[in-house]
Design a protein that fits this description.
Elements (H helix, E strand, L loop, with lengths): L2 H13 L5 H8 L11 H8 L4 H13 L4 H13 L1 H13 L1 H9 L12 H4 L3 H8 L5 H20 L5 H26 L1 H6 E7 L1 H4 L9 E9 L5 H20 L10 E2 L12 E2 L1 H10 L3 H7 L3 E5 L1 H15 L8 H14 L17 H15 L11 H10 L5 H25 L10 H10 L6 H19 L2 H9 L13 H10 L5 H12 L4 H18 L4 H15 L3 H9 L1 H11 L4 H8 L23 H14 L3 H28 L10 H32 L5 E7 L1 H4 L9 E9 L5 H19 L10 E2 L12 E3 H10 L3 H6 L4 E5 L1 H15 L7 H18 L17 H15 L11 H10 L5 H25 L10 H10 L7 H23 L5
Parallel strand pairs: 2-3, 2-4, 7-8, 7-9
Antiparallel strand pairs: 1-2, 1-5, 6-7, 6-10
């Protein structure tokens, strides 16, 4: 070959899409192709394939494998003369290395692609049965199967059939193959065949008439005894036939395997019998089946064996399928199953997963099946097992918007086509997009992307997965709005009854009220209504993910009514990704946070990402800026009442911020998973509420003093936090336990100082409890010397005298939590120095003191536990609850705090950690106590968030209990698991408490 000619051929090959022109030239110059190497139609046809290099290599192999020169000449002549064959054969060779291998082993099978009659374009089961008819054993069945597959692939890659038709043909070929395999099994065991009637029910994609090139073929077997036969023996015979049929299809031979036959969708899965009678199937589905099993039955279709028995099976179970949506937590179960599938994908593969990943094929299929199960009860037109047919029917009936359905149809076809072409290359079962440049190039070209195949493929793939991600959940909710909105004439809409069905399936207890709310929010032609119609489909999904969707939607309507004319409100929800979901979580999680929000709806701004203005975001603020804001507001006020009102307003806003942040962190969002560290959540709430309470008291003190005495009170005054307040462990419903201490200033009469201090306390308590839009802050001083009988305020000297002469061991224990929180810092520090020897006694506690503490605890448990309460579920006084853990830790502090500085803290978890570090408690015991204390604290916080009032036990009302469970990370229907886990955790803690609190050592 001359250099000029070589250069010209090299360029032509590059232009026709060859990536290795040198190797292609050598193949074209080979003896097999010499007669046609210059034929322009051949080069053009090669260039039209997905991979011209692969197609050329496969063609040379096919020619080399021809048994004689005449056969080779016949193939070449037909190839050049018949364009249909040329396109089909080269198209297959350029798309599938596996089918090229088949043709090389069976060189005459290319003739299956020659015929081009209309009846060959869309063959059905009968045509495929004829194609398999000559197979007499598993090996010849595999050869015949691949020959039929060759013709399906040829029509597919040439565009003769679309995705929908190709998937149907693959399902029909699978049906014919199952029938042939069962016939072989029956020939091998005629006695078993005579003893039973066996029906093969196709499930999954085969049942749905939408099979992949390489896929497990899911089946269920149902059998009955023939007349006069024993049922037990008949079932054994049917099981043998079914097992043999599965082996014929699944086992690997010299011709490979066809595909695995998977019967794990049967009742009880792989643990159940392979074959059951119809009555046994029916009994299982009536009593034991889970939601996903009815979802799977959507695609059930009799395909082989006794077709009449198969139809009886489908007819018997169909009514149960269409009742599945009435099951409790139906939508939640389906969505949870979908999430579980995504969570189980290896992290390294999730971005390449076509089928199971976010925005993948399974998202479309789940969304369609969910809608079918909800509305197919009353609309038989929706009862198709084929995804695209069902999607079309949903759109025609108004259950899905036509535009949304069209976009999902397009995306699903593209993604399934990608899946088909990926599998066709090696005929291997995979749903992962390849990573290699050559593989991506071939894949892109096979889909008609020729300019820059790799870049175009990536762009189109991401575009379609993005469409699915955005639409698959919205698909369920948007028609609810159309049902109450004004639509264009002739546009199909969801009927009111269908909308109610859907809302009930979502968990709404009052669908009529929900529809009224939707109508009020989304009707009309205003810009506000248009934005609501955009937001509500997503919000409805988030509400449905809560324990009380009705409350979520009602609260959203209230907030929207209150802020309807505020320009930034809907813009915030529309434009800040986090704000809308955060609001949905907060409004449907219970009463406390919505109640705080309704008192000041502008606090919705806190739910954004914090970048649009000062004070945004849900992270609790530090005490210093909080106190600065409150003191400044109190300083600007005209009198004490106005100053305290301002302080309480800040407290309300920050309580909402803390509660909202806690809810969002506990629930998690689509972009941020739930906080896994329960202790961190407890610490965040405890520190935030305690700092907020301290700042509020500081501001209130400033306002009262300023109003009554000007800049200086006649006495130094300090507030000492006690209990959970001093321990930085306040919950949403906690009172502020405090002590008040004062010390007259130089030259001030003690009586005058005492009167001033008492007036300050009385006015603070009054102003913080005045009825208003803000929640009251209750001040509890009952831990003071002499309790309720003693004076509210004492001087430092009075405290010193009392503690020296009269202090009891319980008072020393209570002082373990004492910490100055507001007022004169020097006086607070001196109070702390005064009480340190009491709470950390030198040489620890004596035996009498230890016995007294144990006696007090036993008396408290006996006297204070509410009558009728289940002790095992009482978070404060129950076994293994807060009291158990705290008293155990405090006993260790009083015994060893004098020589272990780390124990000198007011915080329970910190003291427990230092006790372990000092070797006073084993690591496992410390972990058990910490887990129980954190859980009990979380339950108390949950009860307050859900019910809007404090409580120490789990709610008994089912929705409230479910909401507590949701906050603690338990899904719908798992309240019992939550209670069991609580009992288990506290039971372990009680065992440790018995060893540590009641032991003589320690």
């Amino acid at each position: 070959m001359t250099p000029g000619r070589r250069s010209s051929t090299f360029t032509r090959l590059l232009r026709h899409g060859f990536t290795d022109p040198s190797a292609a030239e050598r193949l074209l110059d080979s003896g097999e192709l010499a007669p046609v190497r210059d034929d322009p139609f051949l080069l053009e046809a090669l260039g039209a394939t997905a991979d011209p290099d692969l197609a050329l290599h496969g063609l040379v192999r096919l020619l080399e494998s021809q048994p004689a020169p005449t056969a080779r000449r016949e193939l070449l002549d037909t190839l050049i003369a018949a364009k249909p064959l040329r396109d089909r054969l080269l198209g297959v060779l350029g798309a599938s290395a596996a089918l090229a291998d088949h043709l090389a082993r069976h060189p005459s099978d290319w003739q299956a692609l020659v015929t081009y009659e209309p009846r060959d374009l869309h063959p059905g089961v009968e045509e495929f049965e004829r194609g398999l008819a000559e197979a007499t054993d598993p090996i010849s069945l595999r050869v015949a199967y691949r020959r039929c597959l060759l013709s399906i692939a040829a029509r597919d890659v040439c565009g003769t059939t679309d995705l929908h038709e190709t998937a149907a043909e693959l399902a029909d070929l699978a049906t014919a193959t199952l029938r042939a395999a069962l016939a072989m099994a029956e020939v091998a065991a005629p006695g078993d065949a005579a003893a039973c009637r066996l029906a093969v029910i196709a499930m999954g994609k085969c049942g749905g008439h939408e099979l992949n090139y390489v896929s497990d073929v899911d089946v269920i077997f149902v059998a009955e005894a023939t007349e006069g036969a024993d049922e037990g023996k008949a079932l054994k015979s049917a099981t043998k036939l079914a097992s043999h049929m599965m082996r014929i299809c699944s086992e690997t031979t010299i011709e490979g395997s066809i595909w695995p036959v998977d019967a794990n969708l049967r009742p009880e899965g792989r643990n159940g019998p392979l074959v059951r009678t119809l009555s046994s199937h029916l009994a299982y589905y009536q009593r034991w089946a889970k939601t996903w099993e009815f979802q799977a039955l959507l695609k059930a279709r009799p395909v082989a064996g006794d077709i009449e028995l198969g139809r009886q099976y489908v007819d018997a179970l169909e009514p149960l399928v269409w009742q599945a949506a009435e099951r409790e937590n139906f939508v939640t179960d389906v969505q949870k199953m979908r999430r579980r599938v995504v969570e189980n994908i290896p992290a390294a593969e999730i971005e390449r997963e076509l089928k199971l990943g976010p925005g993948g094929l399974r998202d479309v299929e789940f969304a369609v099946q969910l809608l079918q199960l909800v509305h197919g009860r009353t609309d038989p037109s929706l009862r198709s097992g084929t995804t695209l047919d069902a999607l079309q029917a949903l759109a025609a009936g108004g259950y899905v918007g036509r535009e949304d359905a069209a976009r999902l149809d397009e995306a699903y076809r593209f993604l399934r086509s990608m899946e088909h072409r990926i599998q066709l290359y090696r005929l291997r079962r995979t749903h992962l997009v390849p990573e290699g440049e050559a593989d991506l190039r071939r894949l892109g070209r096979s889909l008609g992307l020729r300019t820059d195949p790799v870049v175009e493929l990536q762009r189109e793939w991401k575009r379609h997965t993005g469409v699915v991600r955005r639409l698959h959940e919205k698909l369920f909710y948007r028609p609810l709005l159309d049902a109450v909105a004004q639509l264009a004439p002739g546009e199909a809409r969801l009927s009111v009854e269908a909308a109610r069905e859907r809302l009930v399936a979502l968990g709404y207890a009052d669908p009529a009220a929900a529809l009224r709310h939707l109508e009020a929010l989304a009707s009309g032609v205003t810009r506000k209504a248009a934005i609501q119609r955009t937001l509500l489909p997503v919000l409805l999904g988030w509400f449905a993910d809560s324990a009380d969707p009705d409350a979520g939607l009602l609260n959203f309507r209230k907030v929207s009514d209150a802020l309807g004319k505020t320009p930034w409100y809907l813009r915030l929800l529309r434009d800040e990704g986090a704000a809308a979901e955060n609001l949905a979580r907060v409004l449907s999680a219970g009463r406390l946070a919505p109640d705080l929000l309704m008192r000041n709806p502008e606090a919705v701004a806190l739910l954004g990402d914090g970048t649009t203005g000062t004070g945004g975001g849900l992270e609790p603020r530090d005490r210093a800026p909080l106190e600065q804001e409150i003191l400044a507001a109190a300083g600007r006020a005209e009198n004490a009442e106005q100053g305290v009102t301002a302080a309480r307003g800040v407290r309300r806003r920050e309580l909402f911020r803390t509660a909202a942040g806690d809810i969002v962190s506990s629930y998690g969002t689509e972009t941020s998973p739930a906080e896994p560290d329960q202790g961190a959540l407890v610490d965040r709430v405890g520190a935030a509420v305690s700092d907020l309470t301290a700042a509020t008291l500081a501001g209130t003190l400033r306002a009262v003093v300023r109003d009554g005495w000007g800049d200086t009170l006649p006495t130094q005054f300090a507030i000492i936090g006690m209990g959970r307040f001093g321990g930085h462990e306040l919950g949403y419903g906690s009172d502020a336990d405090v002590l008040f201490v004062h010390e007259p200033r130089d030259g001030v009469d003690e009586r005058e100082a005492a009167e001033a201090a008492n007036k300050v306390v009385a006015e603070m308590r009054r102003l913080l409890q005045l009825p208003s839009a803000d929640p009251p802050l209750l001040i509890d001083a009952d831990l003071r010397p002499e309790g309720k009988s003693g004076p509210l305020v004492r001087t430092l000297n009075s405290y010193e005298a009392y503690y020296r002469r009269w202090s009891l061991v319980w008072e020393s224990q209570a002082l373990l939590r004492a910490e100055p929180v507001a007022g004169d810092e020097d006086l607070g520090r001196r109070f702390t120095e005064l009480i340190d020897p009491l709470r950390y006694p030198e040489r620890g506690l004596g035996d009498d003191a230890v016995r007294e503490i144990r006696r007090l605890k036993a008396r408290m448990e006996a006297e204070r536990l509410p009558r009728g309460a289940d002790p095992r579920l009482h978070t404060k006084l129950g076994p293994g609850g807060l009291s158990d853990v705290e008293w155990t830790v405090q006993l260790i502090q009083m015994r060893h705090g004098w020589h272990e500085p780390g124990l000198r803290t007011t915080r329970t978890r910190e003291a427990l950690s230092h006790a372990h570090a000092a070797g006073l408690i084993a690591a496992e015991d410390a972990a058990v106590l910490d887990e129980a204390w954190v859980l009990a604290t979380r339950v108390r916080n949950a009860v307050m968030l859900v019910r809007g009032r404090a409580g120490d036990t789990f709610p008994t009302e089912p929705r409230e209990l479910a909401a507590v469970g949701r906050y603690l990370g338990y899904g719908a229907g798992h309240a019992g698991d939550m209670l069991d886990a609580y009992r288990r955790t506290t039971r372990r803690a009680r065992t440790v408490v018995k060893d540590l609190f009641y032991a003589d050592g320690s």
